[in-house]
Specification:
The chain is of the alpha+beta class. It has three helices and 21 strands.
């Protein structure tokens, strides 16, 4: 009778998966806590290996919730282990700190109360106190710096020393501020008007709290003065401005094109105003005016002078009218130099007669002739020295 091979008709339980074993169809293994049945003969490829689904099919598998719960349990166990380790380390450190604290406590107690040296060559506070007491009460000392008796205690002397030092510090601070002020001649901003200048000191460390003799300030005026003027610095009070010669400012003394420097005169409660030399030019010539009132002017022109006199004779040309480039209040000298086109004619001003016109726009033309020109066309230069304000 023929034999019929039915193959395997039941599962063959092989236990945990072994990558070194050969597996046949219907072999059942466990892997990672789950059951798998072999559906195609295989060697070396497990159910959870790459490509394992070709040879294996799951029989009893965990659900997703179970897997998540298991992973969380594994992580919790790991965390618990780490916490236990950290707790052990903290306990060890606490024990060490406790020991060090006890040592420090004992040492502090020894430094405070010991009758013996807490360390070689040292003394405790108790020992030092006893030694100080052996010298007597320091508050009973009554000897002053100059050797005379004094009833003040040491504490009172310490207070006096502190008071003296504070006074010295105050003087030093004031001296420093004063030195900074004098060294800087602080620059100010003009916030006032013509003839009533109001200044604000720009450098705060040099800002004054009062007017002091010799204090200097510089500023660029917003407007020129038109006459007598005053100044008020940082709201400390209005003071008159005077020229370097001590008189009220004439018109135009303070200019807008240069800085003005003023110096406080405490004795007269005023500010002395300095100005840079002023050089100007216009159709009538050019001039220079100084702070002390001095002025000089120069004018050149060509005119016909008909002397018709012999050499050395006087020539009187009558009253002429000339405008100079600046106004004079009084005249010191006038030098007139002539250069004739028909021959040199040195015509010199005869000093002393200026008429009544103090602005010097008119004067009698009186010359001495060094030669005998006639109807000479002459270039004449006028050099004038005098005052542009009266001091």
């Amino acid at each position: 009778m023929p034999t019929l091979n039915l193959g395997r008709v039941r599962f063959n339980m092989r236990g945990p998966y072994d990558p070194n074993s050969d597996y046949l169809t219907h072999d059942v293994v466990t892997d990672d806590g789950q059951s798998y049945v072999c559906i195609a003969d295989v060697t070396g490829t497990g159910p959870n290996d790459a490509g394992g689904a070709t040879n294996w099919e799951g029989m009893l598998l965990r659900g997703a919730d179970y897997n998540a719960a298991r992973d969380q349990a594994v992580q919790a166990a790991s965390n618990a282990g780490s916490s236990a380790t950290a707790a052990s380390q903290s306990a060890n450190a606490a024990a060490s700190d406790r020991g060090e604290a006890q040592v420090a406590r004992d040492k502090s107690q020894a430094w405070a109360e010991s009758n013996t040296a807490p360390e070689p060559g040292s003394k405790s506070a108790k020992t030092w106190a006893a030694e100080a007491a052996s010298y007597g009460d320091p508050n009973q000392h009554n000897v002053t710096a100059n050797g005379t008796a004094d009833t003040r205690t040491a504490a009172e002397w310490a207070g006096q020393t502190l008071s003296n030092q504070q006074a010295i510090n105050g003087l030093g601070t004031a001296a420093t501020a004063r030195a900074e002020h004098l060294a800087s001649s602080p620059y100010c901003t003009d916030i006032g008007t013509a003839n009533a200048y109001a200044l604000s000191v720009n450098y705060t460390k040099a800002a004054p709290t009062s007017y002091s003799d010799g204090d200097q300030y510089r500023f660029r005026a917003g407007t020129s003065n038109t006459g007598a003027s005053t100044v008020n610095i940082n709201g400390l009070g209005v003071k008159p401005l005077v020229t370097v010669t001590g008189v009220a400012l004439p018109a135009g003394y303070i200019r807008t094109d240069v800085d003005t420097k003023i110096t406080y005169d405490a004795a007269n409660e005023r500010f002395i105003t300095d100005r840079a030399p002023e050089n100007g030019e216009n159709a009538n010539g050019w001039f220079t005016r100084w702070a002390n009132g001095r002025a000089s002017a120069h004018r050149r022109e060509v005119q016909v002078v008909n002397t018709d006199v012999s050499s050395g004779a006087l020539y009187a040309g009558g009253v002429s009218s000339r405008l100079f480039p600046c106004v004079f209040t009084s005249i010191w000298t006038i030098d007139i130099f002539c250069d004739s086109e028909t021959g040199e004619a040195n015509l010199r001003w005869v000093a002393g007669n200026f008429g009544e016109d103090v602005t010097l726009t008119r004067w009698p033309s009186v010359f001495i002739c060094d030669s005998s020109p006639s109807n000479a066309s002459t270039e004449i230069s006028y050099n004038v020295e005098g005052l542009w304000y009266e001091s």
